[in-house]
Design a protein that fits this description.
This protein is of the alpha/beta class and 222 residues long. It has a single domain, classed as TIM Barrel (Alpha-Beta Barrel), CATH 3.20.20.70. α2 packs parallel to α3 and α4 runs parallel beside α6. An eight-stranded parallel beta barrel has the order 1-2-3-4-5-6-7-8, surrounded by seven helices. The longest helix is centred in the middle third of the chain and has 15 residues. The chain starts with a helix and ends with a helix. The chain is globular. The chain contains ten helices and eight strands.
Amino acid sequence: MESVAKMIDHSLLRPELTLHDVRAGCALAARYEVASVCVRPCDVTEAVALLRGTGVLVGTVAGFPHGSAATAVKVAETALAVGQGAAEIDMVLNIGRLRSGDTEAVEADIRAVVEAAGGATVKVILENAYLTDAEKVAGCQAAERAGAHYVKTSTGFAPGGATMEDLALMRASVSPHVKIKAAGGVRTLDILLAMADVGVTRFGATATAAILDELASRRKNG
């Protein structure tokens, strides 16, 4: 139970969430002892205060959800969030530059965020729904060269999310020390376990309680 919970980043990124929703989501994350909450940048200080001492990390996003912010803006978002106590940054790479074949610009954008994070974990969101397989590979490899810790499938705001085929491709595209995060459509325990079998070690999810309650029920019933 604990090992599965520590693979989940409980996602609190929808634009309509109220402060009450964010506080309830942080309480849920603490109750289930997940790896982290991933909150909107405006909620970092609130989440850090609520989760202090729980063992649940606070993460946030940069360049979200489109990836098209100037690098300096992503760097400023990252530095501010880390200064406020965020331990993880999920950044969206520059999707348009990647599709244009400008991998040098993509890599430089990611490297600047990694440097601004100052040792905090950086996960690079590719937004696979908009990319060819060759672009997915190029994005993963640019992220690794830039020093990112994870490559991630999606924001959850594009037309498609994580697929088994994409996860296998991403795992094959980077060396073992770069980890894989699945997001977008991770709604059941069976999906999570199947994705873990292909090498995924972190999951962005809103259905956290349903997934972990199902696991507890299965364990109870043998």
